[in-house]
Design a protein that fits this description.
348 residues; alpha/beta; Rossmann fold; seven-stranded parallel sheet; three-stranded mixed sheet; 12 helices; 43% helix; binds nicotinamide-adenine-dinucleotide; binds thymidine-5'-diphosphate
Length: 348
Amino acid sequence: MKKILITGGAGFIGSHVVRRFVNRYPEYKIYNLDALTYAGNLENIADIESSANYEFIKGDITDADFVNDLFVKHQFDGVLHLAAESHVDRSITDPLAFVRTNVIGTMNLLNAVREIWKDNKQGKRFYHISTDEVYGTLGAEGLFTETTPYSPNSPYSASKAASDHFVRAYGETYGLPYVITNCSNNYGPNHFPEKLIPLMINNIINNKPLPVYGDGKYTRDWLYVIDHAVAIDLVFHEGKNHETYNIGGFNEWQNIDLVHLLCQKMDEKLGRPEGTSAQLITYVKDRPGHDLRYAIDANKINKELGWKPSVTFEEGLSQTIDWYLQNTDWLESVTSGNYQKYYDQQYQ
Ligand code: NAD
Ligand code: TYD
């Protein structure tokens, strides 16, 4: 039985990846390592917690001794590394937290696999899940490809870029069998409501102002999280060692247009008169260093591995809104406690 470690599996994307691997690969034992920070929630994977091929391990990747002991004990065959501090706005307030988890935490995992795989790398793989934000910002034209130079603008993207570089360097220097993917903005169920789409859905439900940064003309390329999990599965199994693949939705939206679309859909679903939610739109102070536009050229993964998004934005958004409306308990539990403090500081 192959032993596969997934880090950050209680978070947004990680929970969808863990579910897919546990259900699809009974021949693997899936270990989910997560520190359960504010962004990690065991509720996200409650449906698979008693599966025979699944084990949850609470632990912090910044603790090198803990990580080394864990790898020596379990001798993992593969690692899918998703654990990270992931929110740009939080990285502006506390950059060092991002260095600790995203850089040092990744280094600890790299050092641990370097040691346990030093004599036999056959069939082993370290898969580092990263972001398109490492490429910096686009102007009105063009797309990020796998050869676009790194040019990160936020502490978050700088920390992810640093970790990508270390993964690549361990491949070159120590022959680590690795693969990296850089994905665009995800959306879908279980997304923590500090990010644009779930924050807007939560605020619409609660009739609260919808804070749009700057002029709202910033552009993101949105991908349904389950399509990302499918791509991750494919790259883990069929991607080439020492390669990078860009993953994206071919689905660019300016923030303000997206917020209007959400308002319109939510009015329909909540039975509110058309135009009700849009009245909540409020332009607020811009994010410092705000990247104008992200857009991914996902042709490499399409041509080489046959992946493309399967869910249209229309379907994905509709399923996402339905999930939030059916899971108001989840929303309430993750927005109680420290969330309010974060929210007040961020949107004062
Ligand atoms: P998330 O913030 O929802 O989840 C992160 C998870 O990591 C949480 O469960 C958290 O408890 C855990 N974690 C944080 N610090 C940890 C530590 N020190 N030790 C162990 N666990 C820790 O993040 P997400 O949106 O699911 O993103 C997952 C990965 O995908 C990240 O590496 C992120 O950079 C990348 N990514 C995200 C997006 C996106 O749109 N969300 C897009 C591209 C790439
Ligand atoms: P976000 O979901 O934080 O993802 P990222 O910054 O990683 O792309 O933000 C997506 C876009 O939405 C980004 O341009 C910032 C903007 N935004 C707002 O306008 N208001 C908000 O309250 C948030 C959280 C984001």
